[in-house]
Design a protein that fits this description.
The complex is a heterodimer of chains A (110) and B (114). With 110 residues, chain A is an all-beta fold. Chain A is 0% helix and 58% strand. The chains are: A mainly beta (110), B mainly beta (114).
Chain lengths: 110, 114
């Protein structure tokens, strides 16, 4: 089946780390993605991870993949006010199709 | 600047009217996509096109139609048969399928039908 689940909301204090979690169902997914959407805008790819990796780090972003549990997480270090947005987890389910989660709204408070 | 443009940003229509949403890209991408976004839901794929003059239905194609006559253009028509057309519509493009080739998104069109 194709179903990606995320918690809907996360509130974090400026300077702390944010961790956004995601579970997916398609064990054959080759790539898993994290996208960011700012208010009223399109989505921007933040990072992706190939399914044979268990971790990827890119500046303040760390992606962890537990393929056995089909669990993906995105950690944002030193969260800033500009990180307030909706974050979508997505899995590739075929060559041209992605399955998106409902998105996690991250609110950064001073 | 390369990118994807969608116009208009806001669109209002009366129930029963067809409406066409524009999507243009100058990234020289072969593949283009249309998604629908509703509050509290992920993006759902309406149609996608891998190459000019070819397109496939996504998960929620009923009540929508597309054309791909030019590589850079992929317009979406929301027909009167679409039961609940009010939504935020996003167009995207990519160089290839869903490998590491990133899907680039346009800014979206918010359609309100009353």
């Amino acid at each position: 089946g194709e179903d990606v689940e995320q918690s809907l909301f996360l509130s974090v204090r400026e300077g702390d780390s944010s961790v956004i979690n995601c579970t997916y169902t398609d064990s054959s997914s080759t790539y898993l993605y994290w996208y960011k959407q700012e208010p009223g805008a399109g989505l921007q790819l933040l990072t992706y991870i190939f399914s044979n990796m268990d971790m990827k780090q890119d500046q303040r972003l760390t992606v962890l993949l537990n393929k056995k549990d089909k669990h993906l997480s995105l950690r944002i270090a030193d969260t800033q006010t500009g990180d307030s947005a909706i974050y979508f987890c997505a899995e590739s389910i075929s060559d041209y199709k992605l399955s998106f989660g409902a998105g996690t709204t991250v609110t950064v408070r001073a | 600047d390369g990118g994807i443009t969608q116009s208009p940003k806001y669109l209002f229509r009366k129930e029963g009217q067809n409406v066409t949403l524009s999507c243009e890209q100058n990234l020289n991408h072969d593949a283009m996509y249309w998604y629908r976004q509703d509050p509290g839901q992920g993006l759902r794929l309406i149609y996608y096109s891998q190459i000019v003059n070819d397109f496939q239905k996504g998960d929620i194609a009923e009540g929508y139609s597309v054309s791909r006559e030019k590589k850079e253009s992929f317009p979406l028509t929301v027909t009167s048969a679409q039961k609940n057309p009010t939504a935020f519509y996003l167009c995207a493009s990519s160089t290839q399928g869903t490998g590491p080739g990133e899907q680039y998104f346009g800014p979206g069109t918010r359609l309100t039908v009353t």
